[in-house]
């Protein structure tokens, strides 16, 4: 930030930033906004990193909000850039390369040097900025130009430097050293791409205003991403959320069972404790209640229409197996098969999912048929559902206009202690086309479960 | 005032061998300067508890620790009346009914102790997420007003505001009300560069080249999808193991044999061995 910033403009900027955070979906309360303002009076405003962390500490209370926060912070408090090509003309601080005029191969050499080094080096960022200045300007339409990252990345194509970097870093290829080197290189390439994207956004914001770009660039936090529209990279990120969720679900169920219920008098321990008060039993000791062991039966739609959702729920099922003593898992498309053994604790999750799609007998014609699935389930695995069981059905309730077999499901649900249905489709689409959501929902309570946040909410309301 | 600036935080924490980055120094400074509790959240073994200890050591303050667990209640977190002593007093003196609810019969528990302490105090509320939701309600009065209300005695305000650090492994979401009252610091896994420095600070005598290799290997392990990613604490254990074995180089064979120090699940070890191309363990 410039030193010439007056108090009024700082307050305006602060309010605008807080407003932008709220628009991006971060819940910033009035009190938290005041905390942040209070923090601003205590720190050195010229230090951009401290400013960023001060805002983060007071306003961002969930790690999943941090990426969106960083994007907005870079827009509202852009770094002071001295000149288009870093420092003044004539000096060559950048490894002797003239960034404004050098040929592309020479620039790639310089990039390779930087990728092999520490990305926190200021030269790394300077270089990214200079490259945006040089390659990032693209004619968007007649008479209009804008800034794009892809132009920069295409001109320099950092990924193609990997082989060269590996040769430079390693005496010989293969084994662990190569893995480690690759990890380091790909991390630095990602970092370079981020720096380029940040600078591109900064330039667009400079030219057409912060508010305009702020609205379009902030992605929703990972726990709000729709299961049915998840990309592959996001799915990997989602997988990391699974274990905490399973743990939470397990503690949720066991905690509830402990509440307000105490066991019988423990006579021996009561008498023992009374010795310190001269034989008068002042405190009674109770036996701990025998913990209730919840049993879980999961029925999971594994058809293609919900593949990302089922991938996620299978992972959840897998994680649950380690928390519950008795979990039985079943997958289905148009017939149903037990997959419990494939998900034995200690097995590798990703292997298990591949094995399931190969070995499990869940497909006859390949079109989802809930009716047939419930009939089959009742016929073959009726013993799985008993008075201690919680039944969890995961699927979109789209049955390709086949008979829904509501009575069978009703019987199954009636026998279980609890039954829940999680549907990954938005509520507005229920009952459209071949969806039998309301029909099934009248038998088994159905919850909209489109993202991790809703799944967590479901877990919290569980009883 | 606890610290004068974020830079001072960095210096003083480094002096007690805690290497802090910008995020840590800024929030530790602000927590002191704004007089707000600091909530640190993150995976196990990244130095959350250690941070509170380091703040206490760096400022010469007394550390009072409240370990949370399921079933923790008022009587063990705040205060309790000494029933036995009260009973004896009543038996000995029939007119004592009025003064059995006085200081003399009050048993201090960590929270009350921290509030009443008149020397500088760091209050560490460890693993807040393990406690029941009701305990969070109990904490709210203390965290926002630094006071405790005891029905028989009245409200006890802090003689001197303690520096409060809460830690959580995020096994459950803490309530919004609690989060609103705290500054938030998410501690994740460090960059390899920072982890190398941490290892060097914690394990004197380890060659810098091994520390570098270790940090990079652990970063690679964390990029795999493991059930439990290695923590900083485990990296340090690994460094100590190698030092004890007298290794001066980290090759595939050594890693294969000592992998159990950082990966505690059988499936994780198998996965790492497969992905990294290590020889199968004998």
Q: Layout of helices and strands, plus pairs?
A:
The complex is a heterodimer of chains A (463) and B (282).
Chain A: H1 7-23, H2 30-40, H3 48-59, H4 66-76, H5 104-116, H6 122-135, E1 137-141, E2 144-147, H7 149-156, H8 162-169, H9 175-208, H10 210-217, H11 232-258, H12 267-274, E3 295-301, H13 307-321, E4 326-332, E5 336-338, H14 349-359, H15 370-381, E6 389-394, H16 406-415, E7 418-423, H17 437-443, E8 446-448, H18 452-461
Helix pairs in contact in A: 1-4, 2-3, 6-7, 6-9, 8-9, 9-10, 11-13, 11-18, 15-16
Chain B: H1 6-15, H2 22-34, E1 38-41, H3 48-59, E2 62-67, H4 74-77, E3 79-81, H5 83-92, E4 106-108, H6 110-116, E5 121-126, H7 133-145, E6 147-150, E7 154-157, E8 163-168, H8 176-181, E9 183-186, H9 192-202, H10 208-223, H11 232-245, H12 252-258, H13 266-276
Parallel strand pairs in B: 1-8, 1-9, 2-5, 5-8
Antiparallel strand pairs in B: 3-4, 6-7
Helix pairs in contact in B: 1-2, 9-10, 9-11
């Amino acid at each position: 930030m410039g030193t010439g910033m007056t108090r009024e403009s700082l307050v305006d900027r602060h309010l605008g930033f807080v407003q932008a955070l709220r628009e991006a979906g971060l819940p910033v309360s009035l009190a938290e906004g005041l905390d942040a303002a209070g923090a601003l009076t205590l720190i050195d405003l010229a230090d951009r990193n401290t400013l960023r962390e001060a805002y983060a500490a007071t306003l961002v209370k969930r790690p999943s909000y941090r990426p969106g926060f960083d994007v907005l912070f870079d827009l509202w408090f852009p770094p002071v850039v001295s000149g288009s090509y870093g420092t003044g003309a004539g000096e060559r601080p950048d490894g002797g390369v003239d960034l404004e005029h050098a040929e592309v191969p020479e620039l790639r050499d310089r990039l390779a040097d930087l990728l092999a080094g520490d990305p926190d080096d200021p030269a790394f960022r300077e270089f990214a900025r200079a490259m945006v200045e040089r390659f990032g300007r693209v004619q968007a339409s007649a008479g209009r130009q804008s800034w794009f990252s892809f132009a920069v990345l295409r001109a320099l194509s950092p990924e193609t430097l990997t082989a060269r970097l590996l040769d430079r870093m390693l005496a010989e290829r293969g084994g662990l050293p190569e893995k480690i080197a690759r990890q380091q290189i790909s991390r630095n390439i990602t970092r370079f791409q981020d720096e380029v994207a940040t600078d591109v956004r900064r330039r667009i914001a400079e030219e057409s205003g912060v508010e305009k770009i702020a609205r379009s660039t902030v992605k929703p936090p990972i726990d709000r991403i729709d299961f049915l529209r998840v990309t592959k990279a996001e799915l990997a990120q989602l997988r990391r959320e699974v274990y905490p969720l399973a743990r939470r679900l397990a503690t949720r169920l066991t905690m509830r069972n402990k509440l307000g219920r105490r066991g019988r008098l423990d006579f021996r321990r009561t008498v023992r404790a009374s010795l310190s008060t001269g034989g008068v039993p002042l405190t009674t000791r109770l036996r701990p209640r025998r913990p209730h062991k919840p049993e879980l039966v999961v029925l999971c739609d594994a058809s293609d229409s919900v593949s990302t959702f089922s991938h996620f729920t299978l992972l959840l099922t897998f994680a649950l197996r380690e928390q519950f003593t008795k979990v039985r898992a079943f997958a289905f498309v148009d017939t149903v098969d037990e997959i419990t053994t494939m998900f034995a604790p200690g097995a590798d999750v990703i292997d298990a999912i591949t094995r399931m799609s190969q070995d499990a007998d869940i497909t006859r014609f390949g079109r989802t048929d809930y009716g047939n699935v419930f009939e089959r389930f009742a016929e073959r695995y009726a013993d799985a559902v008993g008075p201690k069981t919680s039944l969890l059905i995961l699927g979109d309730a789209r049955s390709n206009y086949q008979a829904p077999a509501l009575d069978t499901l009703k019987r199954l649900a009636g026998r279980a202690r609890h039954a829940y249905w999680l549907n990954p489709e938005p509520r507005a689409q229920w009952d459209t086309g071949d969806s039998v959501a309301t029909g099934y929902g009248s038998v088994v309570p159905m919850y909209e479960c489109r993202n991790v946040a809703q799944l967590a909410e479901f877990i919290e309301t569980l009883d | 005032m606890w610290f004068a600036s974020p830079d001072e935080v960095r210096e003083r924490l480094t002096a007690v061998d805690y290497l802090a980055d910008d995020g840590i120094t800024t929030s530790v400074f602000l927590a002191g300067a704004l007089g707000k509790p600091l909530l640190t959240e993150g995976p196990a073994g990244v130095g959350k508890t250690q941070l509170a200890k380091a703040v206490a050591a760096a400022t010469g303050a007394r550390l009072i620790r409240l370990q949370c667990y399921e079933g923790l209640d008022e009587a063990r977190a705040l205060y309790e009346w000494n029933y036995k002593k009260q009973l004896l007093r009543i038996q000995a003196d029939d007119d004592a009914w009025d003064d059995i609810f006085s200081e003399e019969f009050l048993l201090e528990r960590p929270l009350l102790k921290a509030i009443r302490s008149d020397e500088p105090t760091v209050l560490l509320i460890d693993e807040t997420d393990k406690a029941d939701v009701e305990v969070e309600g109990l904490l709210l009065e203390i965290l926002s007003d630094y006071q405790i209300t005891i029905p028989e005695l009245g409200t006890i305000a802090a003689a001197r505001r303690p520096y409060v650090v809460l830690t959580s492994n995020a096994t459950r979401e803490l309530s919004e009300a609690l989060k609103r009252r705290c500054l938030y610091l998410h501690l994740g896994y460090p960059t390899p560069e920072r982890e190398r420095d941490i290892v060097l600070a914690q394990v004197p005598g380890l060659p810098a080249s091994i520390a570098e290799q270790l940090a990079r290997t652990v970063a690679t392990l964390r990029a795999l999808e493991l059930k439990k990613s290695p923590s900083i604490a485990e990296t340090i254990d690994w460094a100590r193991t190698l030092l004890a074995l007298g290794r001066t180089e980290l090759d595939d064979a050594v890693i294969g044999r000592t992998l159990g120090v950082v990966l505690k699940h059988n499936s994780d070890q198998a996965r790492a061995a497969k992905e990294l191309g290590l020889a199968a363990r004998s």
